[in-house]
Amino acid sequence: MDMGVSAAAQDPATGTADEIDLVIQDVSMHFKTRHGTVTAVDGVSFEIRRGEFVSIIGPSGCGKSTVFNILGGLVPGYEGSVRIGGEQISGPHSSIGMVFQEESTFPWRTVIDNIAFPLEIKGVSKAERHEVARRFVDLVGLSGFEQRYPSELSGGMRQRVAIARTLVFEPRILLMDEPFAALDEQTRVLLGDKVLKIQEELRQTTLLITHNITEAVQLSDRVVIMTFRPGRVKRIVDIHLPRPRTGDIVGSEAFGRHVAEIWNDLREEASRGMAESEELSRMKGS
Amino acid sequence: MRLYLVPPALFGTGCVLGFLGLVEWLLRIGVLNQFVIPFPSSVLLSFPRLFAEEQLLHRLLLTGMEALIASLLVISFAIGIGMFLHRYRIARLATEPWIAAAAAAPIVLAYPLFLVIFGRSSATIIAIGFVAGLAPALLKTLEGFQGVRKTLLDVGHSYNLTRSQLFWKIQFPAAIPTIFTGIRLGLIFTLINLIGVEFLINFGGLGQLINDLAERYDLPGVFATIVFVVLVSVFLFSALELVERWLRPAQR
Question: Is A103 on the interface with B (CB under 8 A)?
Answer without folding.
Answer: yes
